[in-house]
Sequence to fold (259 residues):
Amino acid sequence: MRGGILTKQHNIGIQGVFNVGVNMLSYESTAKDIESIGPKICVLPIGSLEQHGDHLPISTDTIIALEVAKRIAKHFNAFLLPPIPYSLSLEHRKSRATIWLSPETLISLIKDIAHSLEYHKYEVLIVVNGHGANFILRNVVRELNYTLNLLVILIDLGAMYFGSRHSREVHAGRSETSIMLYLRPDLVRKESAKDYIPHVTRDYLDYLSMLDISPYGVWGEPTKATKEYGEKLLNNIVKEAIDYVSEVIKFLKKCGHFK
Fold:
C-alpha cells in the first residue's frame, strides 16, 4: 500500500523559463538528493511548442505548466520532473514554429514515465497539462490508475481557465497573455497582440486548423491582458489544483485505497 504524504505550504518566487531554483527536489537535484530525501510524490508538467500569435513565445504552454507544477511540488514536498515540451498540436501545424507528437507517442511517453515511477515505489504522479488539446490524457490517467500501484492525478490548466466549449478564451487570449505578463513580461510583445474571436465553438478545431479559423493564430482578447489579472488567475489556478489533489488523496484514504 502507498505510504503517508507530507504536506507543507511554501512561498514561491518567479523563476526563469526552466530554472527551478534551490530548496526543492527537481531535475536540477543530484541522485543523492533524491535517494536521501525519498519523496513520495512526483509532478510532471506538460507544455507544447506551437504558435501563440505574434505576441507570445512558442513555449508559452510549457512556461505556464512548469510554474504551476513548481508551486504544486513545493506545497507537497514533491519531486519536480522536467517538462515535456511537445504535445498534440496538429491544430497549429500550419505554423512552422509548431512541433507536435502523435497521440500514440504521447501516450507511450506518459505510460513509460508512470511505469518507471511505480518501479521506484513512488506513490503519486501529478500531471500538470498546459496544452488544451491533449484530450487523451484523461483516458491514459484512468487506465494507469486501474493498472498500476501508483496514483495518477491530472491537473488540466485549460479546463481551469477556459471553461465551457463556448468560451471566448481558447488560445493566446487574455488569460494566457496575462499570466505571461506576470511570469515573463520580457517575452511578451504586447504591441503585436491582436484580438480575434471566431463565430464558432472551439470543437471546430477538430475540422480546421487554428490559422484557418483565426488569421492571427489567436482565439481571445489579448489586448485586454494585464499583469495583475495574470497574477490573480495563476494564484487561483494553483490553489484550485492543490485543493483538488488534497481532496482526491483524502477521499481515497477514506475509502481505504490509500494510506
User: Anything to note?
Assistant: The mean pLDDT is 90.
